[in-house]
Design a protein that fits this description.
The complex is a heterodimer. Chain A is built from 13 helices and twelve strands. Chain A is an alpha/beta fold. Chain A has one domain: P-loop containing nucleotide triphosphate hydrolases (Rossmann fold, 3-Layer(aba) Sandwich). Chain A is globular, with a radius of gyration of 21 Å. The model of chain A has no long low-confidence stretch (mean pLDDT 86).
């Protein structure tokens, strides 16, 4: 049973002077995240990956389709029910330095949750919970409590935000490019932390442009291009046997550590054959077709 | 030897004292060499790249010298340096997207830029058009405003523009980090093409992405906390690094093919030292698993193998 399910989710923005034109940022996205599963949403800039994450977090409205969390339609939640939703679903974003208010101490983000979500818990008890949460993201409370954001590193700030999410009764974490601004030597620790949390039953929607990170951590991968899901399935199948030309292009252009780019990669890329219409005319229908068990591919015309 | 840098020290002036961002770099870049300059944020890689072309007002040349093609490059002297910029040393800035003047058509901007260097636009135009063809830009872009070009097109435009006068040294600062994966590859391969066609003699590609620079560079130099850690041919840095920092850094990078479930990668515990008052001796020693008593002395950057320089006592 999927915890989060998206069904033909569409987002249209009004753009241009006086909102005269319409821009479809996401079209008919359908996928699901189960408990204890990491789903990577992979796409280049403008692919709609962040918009999808924002819609799940209710930071953007849905123009069409449904987002369901444990069976309830998320877009209709209001008031207390919405607060209840945020108790289970939280997001962490790309830039840890702009997430914090530089005027206040960084651990304020951990304290402000209590009055909203847990008014019945005493301050002393809350402090104990904070310590536990910080330890579970491998931060030493003595090193990070009572510090201002500029005194902490990007990795520490990012982990503190994950700790903040853990203080709630969280079931789903939307992680939007959370390590792309961190340094190479520390980013892998944050990624490993996410994998640990997943093993404890947390569902994670991992939004990234970096294929290697998506491959490292996720169980399932969703490849987005210009707002349309072009391929999705288990990570092994999407990365091991990519069927959509766009996925193949991405995989052949990603720089690898022990393998240099060769002309052969390009030859593989040029093979733009459609997995659905073998040699026939591509009509460009938006539906995905199951080519293998748990491996769906869209038409190459997308 | 195209570029020779000798004990270069560049500090940033702040109210609390000098930040020792580049603290003694000695290396050479050969003719036709593409050198990748890799490091984390705060390692001094951008400072090194920038100081070879223009020291901004906060930067101060403390010590050391630079030689280009056998002649000293007056990097500490803003006015004297002007004669070399664009002609002998050129730069592709990090945000090429915003490097073009938005109020000028691109052709007009180029002609003004050349005019300032005493070169006639009409003389160079045939060559300019040839190079536009080479990078796959239409000649009509010269009549466009920068806003009409996409990010990848602007990046290629800046690439053509910076190398138009065949500089001896090109510094490319994080040129691909703002681009998408597929455009990234095209731009990176154009850099190699320009070297092969001898539009530039040698190149320093500053980046935080070792896997990208490995694709195009002949040698890679790794920096840590203002010091050089290791310089070797690209294959050696990636497959047989000798400095503990390089070893840990390379082994912490995820790549397609590595899964958390199969092989758990580990980061480097701790964080780099502050550069306002950096510790004496090896700057990596607090995070280094191999650190021993001698590491309080500063390890020299010496050649341990042919073309392989390392600054570590354990590697010697």
């Amino acid at each position: 049973m999927s915890m989060l399910s998206l069904e033909r989710v569409t987002k249209r923005y009004r753009v241009g002077a006086f909102g005269g034109r319409e821009l479809t940022a996401v079209r008919d996205a359908t996928f699901a995240v189960k408990a204890g599963e990491v789903v990577s949403l992979i796409g280049e800039s403008g692919s709609g990956k962040t918009t999808l994450g924002r819609m799940v977090l209710r930071l953007a409205s849905v123009s069409g389709g449904h987002i369901r969390f444990d069976g309830t339609d998320v877009s209709r939640l209001k008031g207390r029910k919405l607060a209840g939703y945020y108790k289970h679903v939280q997001g962490v974003f790309q830039d840890p330095f702009s997430t914090y208010n530089p005027i206040f101490k960084a651990d304020r983000v951990l304290h402000t949750i209590r009055p909203t979500f847990f008014p019945e818990v005493s301050a002393a008890e809350w402090r104990k919970r904070i310590d536990t949460a910080l330890e579970s993201v491998r931060l030493d409370p003595r090193q990070v409590i009572d510090k201002y954001p500029h005194q902490l590193s990007g990795g520490q700030l990012q982990r503190m935000l994950i700790a903040r999410a853990l203080l709630l009764d969280i079931k789903l974490l939307v992680a939007d490019e959370i390590i792309s601004m961190l340094d190479a030597s520390t980013r892998i620790d944050v990624l490993n932390l996410l994998a640990d949390l997943k093993e404890r039953g947390l569902g994670i929607l991992f939004i990234t442009h970096d294929l290697s990170l998506g491959h490292y951590i996720s169980d399932r991968a969703v490849i987005l291009r210009r707002g349309v899901v072009v391929e999705m399935g288990t990570t092994d199948k999407v990365f091991g046997n990519p069927r959509h030309p766009y996925t193949r292009t991405l995989l052949s252009s990603v720089p690898q550590m022990h393998h240099k780019w060769t002309r052969a990669d390009i030859a593989r890329t040029i093979d733009g054959s459609c997995a659905i219409h073998d040699g026939g005319a591509c009509a460009g229908e938006p539906q995905l077709v199951e080519v293998d068990d748990d491996h769906l591919v869209g038409c190459a015309a997308h | 030897m195209s570029l020779r840098v000798d004990n270069l020290k560049v500090y940033y002036r702040t109210l609390r004292g000098d930040v020792k961002a580049l603290d003694g770099a000695t290396f050479t870049v050969a003719d036709g060499e593409i050198m990748g300059l890799a490091g984390e944020s705060g390692s001094g890689k951008s400072t090194l790249g920038k100081s070879l072309i223009r020291l901004d007002t906060r930067m101060r040349l403390v010590e050391g010298g630079v030689e280009l093609d056998g002649k000293p490059l007056p990097i500490g002297d803003q006015d004297a340096m002007n004669a070399y910029r664009f002609k002998a040393v050129s730069l592709i800035p990090q945000y090429a997207m915003s490097a073009l003047n938005p109020t000028r058509k691109i052709g007009k901007m180029i002609s003004e830029l050349l005019g300032a260097r005493g070169v006639k636009y009409s003389e160079i135009k045939p060559e300019l058009e040839r190079r536009l063809d080479l990078v796959g830009l239409k000649r009509e872009v010269l009549n466009n405003y920068p806003i009409e070009l996409s990010g990848g097109m602007k990046q290629r435009m800046v690439l053509v523009l910076s190398t138009l006068l065949n500089p001896s040294l090109l510094i490319a600062d994080e040129v691909t980090s703002a681009l998408d994966v597929s455009t990234q590859r095209a731009v990176a391969e154009t850099l190699v093409e320009f070297r092969d066609r001898e539009f530039v003699k040698s190149m320093i590609v500053v980046t935080h992405d070792i896997s990208l620079v490995y694709q195009i560079a002949d040698t890679i130099m790794v920096m840590y906390a203002g010091k050089l850690a290791e310089k070797a041919p690209a294959d050696v840095v990636v497959n047989a690094p000798r400095h503990p920092y390089t070893q840990l850094l390379i082994s912490s990078l995820p790549e397609v093919g590595v899964r958390y479930a199969d092989r758990k990668l580990a980061g480097i515990p701790g964080s780099p030292p502050g550069l306002l008052n950096p510790p004496a001796g090896c700057r990596f020693r607090d995070r280094c698993p191999l650190a021993f008593a001698r590491c309080v002395e500063e390890p020299p950057f010496v050649e341990v193998d042919k073309n392989h320089h390392v600054a570590c006592w354990k590697a010697q």
